[in-house]
């Protein structure tokens, strides 16, 4: 297991430790939330996340989980997952996903009472995660999910306090961050995942939104574009405008590009997703100078997103035996 203060001579920024609030990460590498179609707390589901921690990531974000589920969950059940990640030397977070009844299909549908209940669920879910020992939670406001839809002027046609202006369309996100902060104080970090631009909103509008999130109590902004445009290009405006750390994703599986993005101040942390599915040991191999041994992601989306689309557990076409569960064959 990598020592928290171990630095790679080839990539000194990438493998430098990083502190945010009460949490210290052993390096700048984030394993982002990746849906797996396995029960999260099953032996195989826990091993899925433990595998990324054992591979050397500094922060492992657990796949998106319903806030309604977490609000009523027993923290002891979730502590098993947090402990598994911690046991491999990484810090642990949970991505929080908003869930309504089937009659809610978009931001125009929820009543004010339903939105207040949802905000409460986010706060209660964060309390569960804090009691379970996680270092952070991350409301999911990216990639067209509901919180992101609230920010979209083409999707949000509300005329109440949650629509009609940029500030109002972002109000649900800021109120969720504020409620979480009120309920957990400084016990855990609050991340927020946001897609920086869309067909009907700009990076500038997103930067202003991120500033309001920071004022509400946000600790780290997770900038997650729906494309690979440049390496951390879309994270740079947020890094330059915010006093809080920024995570960049897209092209970071190239360690030289990741090191450059960090060194040039385009971001503070880098997220590596599908590459860690293909080879969870990517961080350790890069740090140890074994780049030639990395099983490179082909970006074919066949057994990761492809399996998910078929309701099958996420895997990789390069895994020698497909899905090796139970418990992911001791991380292969």
Mean pLDDT: 93
Strand content: 5-15%
User: Quick one: biggest sheet?
Assistant: 8 strands, parallel, barrel
The helical percent reads 25-40%
Q: Give the strand order, joined by hyphens, for the main sheet.
A: 3-4-5-6-7-8-9-10
CATH level 3 topology: TIM Barrel
> Ends: how far apart?
16 Å
Total helical elements = 14
Point out poorly predicted stretches: none
Describe this structure in words.
The protein has helices at 43-54, 67-71, 75-86, 112-132, 146-151, 166-169, 171-184, 203-216, 236-241, 255-263, 274-278, 282-287, 305-309, 328-331; strands at residues 18-20, 23-25, 29-31, 59-66, 91-97, 136-141, 189-194, 220-223, 246-249, 269-271. The protein is an alpha/beta fold and 332 residues long. It has a single domain (18-331), classed as Aldolase class I (TIM Barrel, Alpha-Beta Barrel), CATH 3.20.20. β9 (246-249), α10 (255-263) and β10 form a beta-alpha-beta unit. It is globular.
Kindly summarize this structure in a few lines.
This protein has 14 helices and 10 strands. The chain is of the alpha/beta class and 332 residues long.
List keywords for this structure.
332 residues; alpha/beta; TIM Barrel; eight-stranded parallel beta barrel; two-stranded antiparallel ribbon; globular
């Amino acid at each position: 297991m990598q020592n928290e203060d171990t630095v790679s001579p080839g990539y000194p920024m990438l493998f430098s430790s990083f502190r945010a609030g009460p949490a210290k990460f052993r390096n700048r590498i984030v394993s982002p939330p990746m849906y797996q179609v396995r029960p999260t707390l099953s032996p195989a589901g826990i091993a899925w996340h433990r595998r990324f921690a054992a591979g050397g990531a500094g922060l492992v974000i657990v796949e998106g989980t319903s806030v309604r589920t977490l609000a009523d969950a027993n923290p002891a059940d979730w502590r098993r997952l947090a402990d598994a990640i911690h046991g491999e030397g990484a810090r642990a977070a949970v991505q929080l996903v908003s869930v309504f009844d089937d009659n809610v299909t978009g931001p125009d549908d929820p009543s004010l009472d339903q939105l207040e209940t949802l905000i409460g669920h986010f706060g209660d879910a964060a309390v569960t995660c804090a009691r379970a020992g996680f270092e952070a939670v991350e409301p999911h406001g990216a990639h067209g999910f509901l919180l992101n839809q609230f920010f979209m002027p083409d999707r949000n046609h509300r005329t109440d306090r949650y629509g009609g202006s940029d500030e109002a369309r972002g109000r649900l996100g800021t109120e969720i961050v504020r409620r979480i902060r009120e309920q957990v104080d400084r016990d855990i970090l609050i991340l927020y995942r946001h897609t920086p631009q869309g067909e009907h909103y700009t990076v500038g509008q997103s930067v202003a939104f991120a500033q309001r999130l920071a004022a509400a109590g946000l600790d780290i902004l997770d900038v997650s574009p729906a494309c690979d445009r440049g390496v951390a290009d879309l994270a740079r405006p947020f890094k330059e405008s915010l006093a809080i750390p920024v995570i960049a994703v897209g092209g970071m599986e190239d360690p030289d590009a990741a090191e450059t993005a960090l060194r040039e101040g385009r971001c503070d942390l880098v997220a590596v997703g599908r590459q860690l599915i293909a080879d969870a040991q990517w961080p350790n191999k890069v740090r140890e100078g074994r780049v030639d041994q990395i099983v490179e992601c082909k970006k074919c989306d066949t057994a990761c997103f492809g399996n998910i689309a078929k309701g099958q557990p996420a895997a990789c076409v390069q895994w020698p035996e497909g899905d090796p569960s139970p418990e992911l064959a001791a991380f292969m």
